[in-house]
Specification:
Elements: H1 2-23, H2 26-33, H3 37-65, H4 67-90, H5 94-126, H6 131-154, H7 159-164, H8 166-177, H9 192-197, H10 203-215, H11 219-248, H12 252-280, H13 282-306, H14 311-327, H15 329-337, H16 343-372, H17 374-390, H18 397-404
Helix pairs in contact: 1-5, 1-6, 1-8, 3-4, 3-5, 3-16, 4-5, 4-8, 5-15, 5-16, 6-12, 6-15, 11-12, 11-14, 11-15, 11-16, 11-17, 12-13, 12-14, 13-14, 13-17, 15-16, 16-17
Length: 405
């Protein structure tokens, strides 16, 4: 069990490391493929669409073949596509880069459901709240990957050679972890005779089953909750630094410090959040964290008026509070989704709600911010956290246990 747990931690960390090392080189990639900002955004959007397609379809694959094959296959596609994307960038080929971006997104989306299903099963077997720490390993991997990518840029290491490093890293990961991954996790257990004598359900029936599962149970509240908080988390990635520049007169470097406060607070909260969940429960911790996040967002809004010359420093602290507010959303909501029957389908549905917020939310919030101002738009984010705090009761294990009966 511990070896399985360490293996899943390693996969979470690898995902963060590989992705962040690529993202920090995007300004250089943009110049290599000679596109403008909106065109680069479209290429990234293609990758997001790949992730959403994988999230929607991965549950059926896992229910039939288990998480092990999905995890290994997804990360193999992710790593090989990342390396290929590096070649596409070096060849100044934006269309080719968009194609590989789709497969990058598809691979990591496919693997993400599997690793979260595994994490939920490990958590239930060990009787401890482990999902926050798993996601903390992703955050730590992200910090390491950002450092690796930044050093690569400083040394003028080509994108092509930087991404090639991922091949031996992933090969080592497979070598040390593959034997510790159970084959049966996530499989939907059916009676052997009935499975042999009945035809597989049509896609229409499967979609109806997914809709029934999402809208006919408390899973709807879990999906709504993760959508609300993930929208706030995605907004922090896109609009926090810009708001500090435009409304606090901060330099880009000082705005980056604010974002670093947010990411650091998220990592620490995820690392220690599991212990607090074991003491007080998922619903209590999420509710309190969300309210801390509300306080941080309100401070961001009012600090320029209330604190004058000290506003930027208050903004940094408020950014950390914002990070605390959103840090536990993904691990706790996915942990709740993984309990009960059809865990792979439940996790896939809830993860899709979360990633949809990442994809759809930031552009819509940008239009709203353009109309009413970024700081005024942040009131919507505070409202989303308040909504999540109100429906946090859906995370109680008793709710999931009742559904599983």
């Amino acid at each position: 069990m511990r070896a399985w747990h360490r293996s899943i931690i390693s996969y979470f960390a690898f995902a963060g490391f590989a992705w962040a090392s690529w993202v920090v080189r995007l300004p250089e990639i943009k110049n290599l493929i000679q596109v403008n900002t909106s065109q680069l955004g479209l290429i990234l959007l293609v990758g997001s669409i790949g992730s959403l397609i994988a999230l929607i379809g991965s549950n059926r694959f896992i229910e039939r073949f288990g998480t092990k094959l999905s995890l290994i296959g997804g990360y193999t596609l992710f790593t090989s596509s990342l390396i290929a994307a590096g070649f596409a960038a070096s060849l100044h080929a934006p269309i080719l880069l968009a194609v590989f971006s789709f497969f990058i997104g598809f691979g990591v989306g496919f693997a993400d459901v599997a690793q979260n299903v595994d994490g939920s099963q490990i958590e239930q077997s060990m009787g401890k709240s482990l999902m926050p720490r798993l996601h903390a390993s992703y955050s730590l991997g992200t910090l390491a990957g950002a450092g690796y990518g930044s050093v690569g840029a400083w040394l003028h290491l080509s994108i092509q050679w930087q991404t090639w490093v991922m091949a031996p890293v992933f090969a080592a990961l497979l070598y040390f972890t593959v034997r510790h991954l159970p084959k049966e996790t996530g499989k939907l257990i059916r009676d052997t005779l009935s499975a042999a004598t009945t035809t597989s359900p049509s896609q229409s029936a499967q979609r109806q089953g997914s809709l029934r599962l999402l809208f006919g149970t408390s899973l709807f509240l879990i999906g709504l909750g993760i959508f609300s908080i993930t929208l706030v988390e995605g907004a922090s990635n896109d609009w926090l630094a810009l708001s500090l520049v435009e409304n606090y007169a901060a330099s880009p470097a000082n705005a980056g410090v604010g974002y670093a406060f947010l990411v650091g607070a998220m990592t620490i909260t995820r690392f220690f959040g599991g212990n607090l969940v074991d003491l007080w429960g998922r619903d209590v911790i999420l509710r309190r964290a969300a309210l801390v996040g509300v306080a941080g967002i309100l401070l961001i809004i009012f600090a320029p008026v209330w604190f004058g010359s000290l506003a930027l420093y208050v903004g940094w602290v408020a950014s950390a509070l914002w990070g605390v507010g959103v840090a536990l959303a993904f691990p706790l909501f996915l942990s709740a989704a993984g309990e009960g029957k059809e865990s792979a389908r439940r996790v896939a549905l809830v993860a899709t709600c979360g990633y949809t917020a990442f994809l759809v939310g930031p552009p819509l919030l940008g239009f709203l911010g353009q109309t009413i101002g970024l700081l005024n738009m942040f009131f919507v984010l505070a409202g989303c956290l308040i909504l999540a705090a109100i429906i946090a009761g859906a995370l109680k294990p008793a709710v999931q246990e009742a559904e599983a009966i």
